[in-house]
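Schema walk-through. Below, the input block comes first and the output block second. Nothing else is stored per chain. Lengths vary across the set, and this one has 128 residues.
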Amino acid sequence: MRFIVPAGMEHFPIESGYAPAVAEGGFLFLAGQLGRDDQRNVIVDPQTQFTRAWENVVTILTAAGAGVGDLVDVTTFHVGLREHLALYKTVRDRFLQGHTPPWTAIGVSELSRLGLLVEIKCIARLPG
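--- output ---
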C-alpha cells in the first residue's frame, strides 16, 4: 500500500488523520475531495467550490501518475443536490472531457463543514 500525499495536501494526515489517497492492487482510492481555498476555508460560490473540488481530484490523480481518463468510479455527496446538479455537471464535464465513468450522486443533509455543497470520492486504475 502506498499513500499519496501531493504537495500542498500534507495537512491531511497531520490535521485530519487520513491520506488524500492510497494506491493498492493497481487502483487508486481517493478520499472525498472538497471545495476549500488555500487556507482551508469553504469556498462560498458553488461553481468555484465545485471547480476546486475537481482540481483537488486532478492533483491527486497526477501525483499518483494517473489522469481523469483512469477514473473507474465516482461517487458524489451533495447538499442541495437538485438545486446545484446542473451546475455541478457542467463543472464536472469540463474536467472529465468526455470520459464517462460510473457515477453515483447522493443527496445528504450536511457535510463536514457548514457551506460545503459537494464531496467527490473516486476510484481510479493506475496505469501500468
